[in-house]
Structures are given as C-alpha cells and as structure tokens.
Amino acid sequence: MRKSSGSYVKEGIALALMGLFLYLFLFVDFQELPVEIPRSFLNVNTIFLSIVLEAIPFILLGVFVSALIQTFVSEEAIQRFLPKNAIMALFPAALLGAIFPICECAIVPIVRRLIKKGMPLHVGVVFLVGAPILNPVVFASTFFAFQSTKEIVYARMGLAFVLSIMIGLILYLVFKKSDQLKWTRAELVGRAGSIGEEAKVKGNRVKSTLYHAIDEFFEMGKYLIFGAFIASLFQTFLDRSVITAMGTNEWISPAIMMAFAYILSLCSEADAFVAASFGGTFSAGSLLAFLVYGPMVDLKNTIMLFAFFKARFVLVFIGVVTISVYAAILIYQQFFLGIW
After folding, report:
1. N or C: where does the chain have the smaller number of CB atoms within 10 Å of the terminal CB?
2. Is the whole-model pTM more than 0.85?
C-alpha cells in the first residue's frame, strides 16, 4: 500500500520527536550543560516519556490482538457470534469487555479491526468504552487502590457497564449502520492493496500476524506519541491549584475531574492510584467521574480516533460520552451515594 508524502512527514516528525526525548532522557545530564534548562522543559520530557513508556506495552498488546483478529477471525464468525437484533447485540459486547485485559491505549486498533471485519459500529462502541474499565486487571487495581472505600470500586464497574450499553444504544440511534471508518485508497478501490499483501503471506499465518502487527504498530504509534506530547504540555503548564479549589462543589467538581482525566491521559490500569491521591480533596462522585470518564475518552485516544474514524462520528462520540458520564455521576450522587 503506497503512502502519501504527508503520511511520511507525520511519521518522520513523530519518530524524530520520540528519538529526541529518549536521547535527552537517557544520555544528557542537564546539570552539566553550560546553559540552564527550564524546569518546565524537564517536566515535559519526564511526563512525555512516562506516558509513552506506560502505554507502549498496551499498544503492543492491542496491535497484536488486532493482527490475530485480522488473520484468524473471519467476517462470518463475527456475524455468527453477534445476535441479529441490534439492541440485543449490545449486551455480549459489554460482557466481552469484562474478559480481556485491554486498556484504552490498546482498544482503538482492536475495535477498528473488528468493525472492518463486520462488527456493527454501535457494538464496537460498547467495547470501546467498556473494555478499558470492566476488564479484570482494572478491577484489581481499583480494588487495591480503594481498599477502604469499596463503594467506589463497585460503582465504577457498575456505571461502566450500564453506560457502555447506553452510549452504544445512543450512537446506534444516531448513526444506524452507516460506515464511520476512514479507509485508505487501497481499501476503497476494491481493497486491492490489502488483498495483494495478504496473498503473499496467506500460507503462513504466523508471518501474516506479525506483518499486520508491525504495520498497525507504526500506524498507531505516531498518534500515541503526538497525543502523549500534547498531554505532557497540559500536565506541565496546567495550574492544579485552580482545580483543587473547586473540589468540594458537587456540581462543578465532577466536571473538573473529567477534564483532569482527559488531560492526564492515564492508563486505566494505573489511574485508580492517582484518583485515590485526591481522596482528601474531592468527593466520591468526583473520583468516580475521573475513573469512568478517563478510560472512555482522553487526549491521546482522541487523536487516535480522529485518525481512524470520521470527524463527525468522533465529535458526536465524545459529546455523548461526556454528557452521559456527567449525568450518570450527578444521578449517582443524588440517589445512590452511601447506600453500599
């Protein structure tokens, strides 16, 4: 598949940026430089690398699972697995998210591949927002981080399950069965390029899996790097004192923590420990907003979504997720907080 010159420029910038930060982090002693490096630059470098190094293992997991789906899962198998009724198909997707240990860093390539294989868009959406929270690794990390307040653990899982089905249903009503993926030129023209490439490795499924995983990793990696860099800038220059000053307001604090989760772009396997550190400042509802919203939508996976889905779908998706999570947290605070 031939790439455009713009694609090569994007990949070159992303790789150069990654190389620069790695070189500065590993080989440069800033204390010995003749000029004083601003502390903010060092913070950006440290945060950027921490996000990238935290996310890369899960990206590798995601692209490998995506490659396995491409090689071993047929369109017919997906059609047989899913119920014919569009509404009933939402529930298996939510349950499927509770099985696989996949975070929001890895879920985008997997859902993209499943939709290309024939999974309906709204079912993919349920998996997209539910799997990063409902999986057993996230449950265990949340349970450990909130040992003294188990209510938050169970509320996070319950809200994620219900919201994933609701969000999938809303997006089904908006988009029905329309195609919202961005396709390459080769895929659009009878997918000739992809078929030609697959034919070369058809006889060896291991080779085919590795081929697709490598291709997917480099395609996803540049958007991860760009998103991590933007998130590190926000984390460095954001005045957190403004956020903590509004932590006790039951209407404003959930929205503040949702914005904070979006900017921090933490991996869902680790975000519970960060949320627990805010326990003395923010209410339980605000912490839940942080824990539910961040894995569904954050800065780095927004960039990935815009890269592989149509802009209108991404904007509607973010809007629906944001409104749904905020409304659910307000309802939870009003009627369910403290009943566990």
Report:
1. C
2. no
